[in-house]
Amino acid sequence: MTLKQATKNIVKIKEEEAEETDFETAIAIAGFGAFNILLLSAAALSIFATLFSATSMSFVIPTAECDLQLDLNQKGLLNAITYAGMITGTIPWGFAADTIGRKKVLIAGLLSNAVFVVCCSLSQNVTQLLTFKFFDGLAICGPYAVTLTYLSEFHGLKYRRRIVMIFGILTSIAVLILPIIAYAVLPYQLDLKTDYISIHSWNIFLLITAVVPLLGGVLHIFCPQSPKYLMSQGRNSEALKSIAIAYAINRRSTIESYPIKLLVDEAPERKIRMNPEYKQNLKTLSGKRKEAIIRFREKFDQLKPLFSKPYLPLALHVCFTIHQSIRLWMPQLFVTVEKYEQEHETMKDICDVLDVVKNKTEPEESSNCEEMYLTPESLRNNMIVAAVSVVAFFIAFLIVNETGLKCLTIIACLYLAAMGVSVNNLLTIEVQLFPTIIRAIVILMSMGFGRFGALLGNILFPYCVQINCLAPFLFTAIMVFESFA
């Protein structure tokens, strides 16, 4: 017997003697430290990339109005098209996250998103921009929801609630960072032209936002796979290694020093796939065909629990309470308000401003178009609006453990500025209520319904403006009331 074989036998004996440990105990021993901070840093880039994709058009539209000859309805489409892509990708990304793993989805989604954002920055007309923004939304749909799942599966019960609140804080910070980037770029009148392409300040703005998903995708290459996902796939040895890595970095120790040696087998039916004979059979054509059929059935079976009690009522309740639309029109409204105040001595109410927006329903030729660059003042107003959400999330972060999720959700829903907190609480509830095998797809579906609300809201907002002043705000109020009910 060789030394290598003897070592393997000793390890095997120790594993057989070791007591099986459940996931919550194992992840709690890993603790909270440098690894979790690094994980949150990578997650922040994923969150920022998603919010940049969903919100960037709201800052581009006022600046690119003349360059792209935009009418009011086209502005609504540009705000909405990213959400159309996100909705399209909801089910495929959900299947992928629960089948091939969180890490692969994060890497593929972020890197492909970076490519499409670069394409958006090079767009020369509204058709090109709409096309690339659709694929931008399709690519980034998965990483945002999967980031929440990924983070929650690397933290024990002690930290999980606050981690989801940190997720919300990072989301609101992303909304604050975007106008800061816009503040640094968009007020400058840049006009570079060649025989094939024209570059304006809004093109540079979009190109800068592409750096975030690129960095996020690269960073996630070095992150371990979710241990909870690995356990659900019967890959306990890999799951143990992921948790041991977290333990080693947090404790500044070695992977071998992690005290847990054996995890509870959560998927005994999958052990057959680890058998060498089974792996050998996969090399044949018939074996591959059989494996493909089995995996398809498994993917379909993953959805069955979602359409049964108690998960279906819970999922439907959450799905219809996540939406946003008017926020994406704030930059346009602020720049219109500022321009109105420059041209008129007094402004009676917001209806005066909406009349200006309403009258610009037809696209103008570039030569006749009056440019409306986002000024530092209008961008500062957007920063103030975003900062309110950051404050709301910090308050929620501090009191979530004391008040409880239900009480905090009711309080948050009383204020429009705190709607993001309400959404985050609902996502926290989803993380806790739904099992690992359907968690990612449920979160993606709930966000998909919310994005449908954003898609509908941004398409209908211009039409509501053309009806009368009250219509767009009444429409928004009805949607908010429906969420509260």
Automatic annotation (TrEMBL):
Assign the protein's first listed, main location to one coarse class: membrane
Bilayer topology reads: Multi-pass membrane protein
Q: Which UniProt keywords apply?
A: Membrane, Transmembrane, Transmembrane helix, Transport
Which SUPFAM superfamilies does the UniProt record give?
Answer: MFS general substrate transporter
Entry keyword Transmembrane: yes
Domain (Major facilitator superfamily (MFS) profile): residue spans on this chain? 39-485
| Annotated TM spans | 26-52, 105-124, 130-151, 163-184, 204-223, 383-400, 407-427, 433-453, 460-481
This entry carries the following GO cellular component terms, namely: membrane
Name its cellular compartments: Membrane
List the protein's name.
Major facilitator superfamily (MFS) profile domain-containing protein
The organism named in the record is Glossina austeni (Savannah tsetse fly)
